Amino acid sequence: MTAIISQLNAMGTQNLLTLALVAITALYVILTGRLARSAAKQVELITRPRISAAFLIDEGNSVYLRIQNTGATGAERVRLRLDRNVVLERGNLGETDLFRHGTAWMPPGSVHDYAVGTGPDVLAEQAEAGPFTITAEYVFGKKRYLEEHILDFAAFSGSLAPRYSAEAQALRELNKRMGQLTKEVAALQQTIAGLRKGELTK
Q: Can you say whether residue 143 is alpha, beta or left, with left for phi > 0 and alpha for psi between -120 and 50 degrees?
């Protein structure tokens, strides 16, 4: 320990300050590089495209498969692949233009909906074939992305419950009430007819 202290004293104050400055500069460079890489990663996550695949149900219980760019920028040279055949309401998903040929450009927010069918029986039939995977491959800038989406009709089937808008629900209630009123009016007419018949036989 004494030898080290003696050596440091021999170096002089100026040399010690220089050594400390070099160490601080090296640490600053390391930290700055890490911060720059982290910032670049955050910018990429915010600005990059994202090709998603999900199920969708409308108010009429029609089932759709939606392919969408949910990212902030467009995706280039988009290619989509399936690991098994998926039957649509008309044709097969793998035979559609987007899956057969891909697209050179998919703008942010662009949507491709494919009708699978209507009603709970549709999901029951599709679920028998098991889950399937949609692989999306595309380019953003100089980087190529590969994303896999595993979709399962069986896991989604519970969502196919009767769904009605407020207007449709009100119309259903009105029709139900009208049916009740029709029965009540018919019963009243029978009562009146009976009373009149009784008066005529007196």
A: beta
